[in-house]
Design a protein that fits this description.
Aminopeptidase; 27% strand; binds cobalt (II) ion; 27% helix; 432 residues; 20 strands; Aminopeptidase i, Domain 2; 5-stranded mixed sheet; 9-stranded mixed sheet; alpha/beta
């Protein structure tokens, strides 16, 4: 895909994917529209060479597969990994907080959210609702209120004169969004959820809402920004950008070598879940691609994974937060992430392979290493590498304000990453 339509489509994808459930549903539609067939983990699979398939778990993790015509024991597999989740505020089960006359929501912080930017935003709510229908069945559906239905107001500076020096945020007390002013009708949060469910899915015949996983998000659409349109801004760039680049690259892939895209939920909270990178989802799918355990072990030794998750671009107002020799810049291409303590899975061989892919694709590439005195982040790369023993490189689009409700990335970098991943899916054999 050319750069301009790519960026517009990327921003549309991010804007319409407020939760992992929505991101997976949207990717699923895109794959099905492009000739991929749906697989169900509960059924027997009949995978054919040249076949294109997708399978989801929990509605929030997705694996897409192209079964290559070459034997996996001869050429291995090319795997791109990313995550579907982003830090946010999730609504608690008994959500109603009434501080007369207002209805507010009790929320939990999901992942390492930067909380300051959540104040004074036009917030909406989306996620999955599980309900009982009129036939007595328990069913789930995704909902998205779309409209701004809540706000977390800041405390005025007059009431906290030190706010610019040392305001601290208590995640239990200070971030409960205000939803409405209660009148005579005793409306509560479950009423709002049920009303939205019936509005969005009139056929669902929901009788009672049993449970939900709903999170708040900013309704401001992603945008292209800057006097020369150098930047893109929006929420959840970490890591929907990588999901989108990986999916776009896979849609362009041929069917010589087996190619896999895995997009896992729960990376931001440690990946330990049934559908997370530390769970068995990917391994069980790979086992079904490769007939038997010995074939899988042999195939994995010839396989390669690109773990794609955004990197920290050096911030011009805080340049001392980066190692002076490793300062990724926006629009300088994807960054290879390296850490001596294996917080990133990159080694010299896998870094070299990715550098070469970028050269082949005509894409600039840079390197990120954390300051030695700063704790380093991590990704699904080391987790999957240690679970299945695959050669892995950690890379990512550089960005500012990671885990803010509005992040900034370079306008060109996602397209660069897509071109590099497209090259990767064409890689016939590893050089080592
Ligand atoms: Co991430």
């Amino acid at each position: 895909m050319d750069k301009d339509p790519f960026i517009l489509d990327l921003l549309a994808f991010v804007g319409s994917s407020p939760t992992p459930f929505h991101a997976v549903a949207s990717m699923q539609t895109r794959f099905l529209d492009n000739g991929f067939a749906s697989l169900d983990e509960r059924h027997e699979w009949d995978l054919r060479a040249g076949g294109r398939y997708i399978v989801t778990r929990n509605g929030s993790s997705l694996i897409a597969i192209i079964v290559g015509r070459h034997a996996v024991t001869a050429n291995g597999m090319r795997i791109v990994g990313a995550h579907t989740d982003s830090p946010c505020l999730k609504v608690k089960p008994s959500a109603n907080i009434t501080r007369s006359p207002y209805l507010q929501l009790g929320v939990e912080v999901y992942g390492g959210a930067l909380l300051n930017p959540w104040f004074d935003r036009d917030l909406s709510l989306a996620g999955r609702v599980t309900y009982r229908n009129s036939a007595g069945k328990i069913v789930s559906a995704n909902i998205d209120f779309r409209e701004p239905i809540a706000v977390i107001p800041s405390l005025a500076i007059h009431l906290d004169r030190d706010a610019n020096k040392n305001r601290s945020i208590n995640s239990e007390q200070h971030v409960s969004p205000v939803v409405l002013i209660r009148g005579d009708a005793e409306i509560d949060f479950l009423d709002l959820v049920k009303r939205q469910l019936l509005d969005e899915h009139p056929e669902c015949a929901a009788k009672s809402v049993l449970s939900y996983e709903l999170s708040l998000y900013d309704t401001q659409a992603p945008a292209i920004v800057g006097a020369n349109r150098d930047f893109i801004t929006g929420a959840r760039f970490d890591n929907l950008l990588s999901c989108y680049c990986g999916a776009s690259a896979l849609l362009d892939a041929g069917d010589d070598v087996s190619c896999v895209l895995v997009c896992n939920d729960h990376e931001e909270v440690g990946s330990a879940s049934a559908c997370g990178a530390q769970g068995p989802f990917l391994k069980s799918v790979l086992e079904r691609i490769t007939a038997n355990p010995e074939a899988l072990t042999r195939a994995l030794d010839r396989s390669f994974m690109v773990s794609a998750d955004n990197a920290h671009a050096a911030h011009p107002n805080y340049t001392d937060k980066h190692d002076a020799q490793h300062r990724p810049v926006l629009n300088g291409g994807p960054a290879i992430k390296i850490n001596a303590n294996q917080r990133y899975a990159t080694n010299s061989q896998t870094a070299a392979v990715f550098q070469d892919l970028c050269i082949q694709a005509g894409v600039p590439v840079q390197t990120f290493v954390s300051r030695s005195d700063l704790a380093c982040g991590t990704t699904i790369g080391p987790i999957i590498a240690s679970e299945i023993g695959i050669n892995t490189v950690d890379v990512g689009v550089p960005q500012w304000a990671m885990h803010s409700i509005r992040e900034t990335a370079g306008q060109a970098d996602s397209h660069y990453l897509y071109l590099a991943l497209r090259e990767f899916f064409r890689l016939q054999a590893l050089p080592f």
